[in-house]
Amino acid sequence: MRYRIVLRRRFKTGAFFEGILPVISIFAALLFSGGALLLFGVSPLAAYRAMFRGALGSGYGLSEVIVKAIPLVISGVAVALAFRMKVWNIGAEGQIYLGALASAAAVRFLPSDSRVVMLLTMTVAAIIAGGAWGYVAGFLKSRWNVNEVITTLMLNYVGIHLADYFIYGPWRDPSSLGFPMTPPFPPSARLPLFFGTRVHLGILAAVLLVLLFRLVIRWTRWGFEIRAIGDNPRAAEYAGISYGRNVVLLMFISGAIAGLAGMTEIAGLQGRLQPGFSPGYGYTAIIVAWLARLNPWGIMMVSFFMGVLLVGGDTIQVINPLRHPRRDTYREIRGTEPGA
Fold first, then answer.
1. How confident is the model at residue 20 (pLDDT cuts 50, 70, 90)?
2. Buried b vs exposed e over 210-221: b needs ≥16 C-beta within 10 Å?
3. Which of 256, 287, 289, 303 would be 127's cystine partner, CB 3.0–4.6 Å?
4. How far apart are the first and last CA of the chain?
């Protein structure tokens, strides 16, 4: 008796596969990273144990994980919204910088002693600036079918260098001893902090955006149009759903959300605009969105996990025999005495 194996494409995956695939992806990444650590003579288990201990082993570490997760959740929602319609917004990083730049401009040119008024002004400015940056790519896509991957990616560099121009140039703080940064924001332009940590009001914006993302995609007419275009653009167009209009609107809203991430980052943490305030949150958001399978609840979970990796990575970087007091931790990871 002869047997034949036939491979067929699965058009719909079950809930089990939807949930288990991100876990497998993360486990595989940790496994391969562990192999790289072994090449440098580092125990992967000890390194990972130190990472998770530093990130989750104290209240301070946990609060820092949340701080890192806030911009990832917001920018993750931004790119996931576009990806849901199969419009590839790779420009969240530039939109974050434009949102931060517009927020700093609002503080500089439209100051107010009222925290409510000042924060609202900064929020509106960030939304408009980030949305406009996304609108450029959406308009080019709609009008001339210009590939949005290329335009959004290139606009990242334009946005970053535009912000740098003002930081290094006309907006540089004269009292910063030559360091490139704007003057510090007044207290009215700072987001409130919680429980004596660096966790700021941006956490509420992140949670609200996740809820809105779920509500819009599943329960509104526009969400249905997004899903219809993402599943079959030609069928959606035949049904009377305008592809061009939705692309422009979607890219504007996606950019606006990413711009809001920039505003929360500088108003909640930095207190001023300076180079490199975003360590690639816009790019990491793409990973977050795909690991979460474009699921809003998954975005929160993956962002938290990425926050653990970022804080844990910072923890093991400072394990240095010259400046870290815990020699036993260094010995545990490296397997040797410091300086041996």
1. confident
2. beebeebbeeee
3. 256
4. 66
Please state, in angstroms and rounded to a whole number, the distance separating the CA atoms of residues 36 and 208.
39
Q: Which long-range contacts (CB under 8 A, 24 or more apart) does 218-223 make?
A: 222/246
pLDDT value of residue 338? 47
**Residue written as tokens 């990425």?**
306
Find residue 200's DSSP bridge partners: 193
C-alpha span between 266 and 6 (Å, rounded): 55
DSSP letter for each residue of 144-173: H---HHHHHHHHHHHHHHHHHHHHHTTT--
Token pair belonging to 145: 């079918």
> Of 150-159, 238-247, 305-314, which has the strongest mean pLDDT?
150-159
Does some domain include residue 18? no
Average pLDDT score over residue span 237-262: 95
**pLDDT average, residue stretch 50-70:** 93
Q: How confident is the model at residue 330 (pLDDT cuts 50, 70, 90)?
A: very low
Closest CA to 67 of 242, 254, 200: 200
pLDDT, position 41: 84
Q: What is the pLDDT of residue 24?
A: 84
Tell me the C-alpha distance between 264 and 74, whole Å: 10
Structural domain boundaries, residue 200: 69-295
Using CA atoms, how far apart are residues 317 and 75, in angstroms rounded to an integer? 26
Tell me if 266 sits within 8 A of 273, measured CB to CB.
Answer: yes
Residue 336 covered by a domain: no
Please spell the DSSP secondary structure of 220-256, one letter per residue: SHHHHHHHHHHH-HHHHHHTT--HHHHHHHHHHHHHH
Total domains present in the chain = 1
The C-alpha atoms of residue 127 and residue 168 are separated, in whole angstroms, by: 24
* Average pLDDT of the chain to the nearest whole number: 89
DSSP 286-298: HHHHHHTTT-HHH
- The answer as to whether 89 is a domain residue is yes
Q: Is residue 259 within 8 Å of 133, Cβ to Cβ?
A: yes
pLDDT, position 16: 65
Asked whether residue 3 is domain-assigned, the answer is no
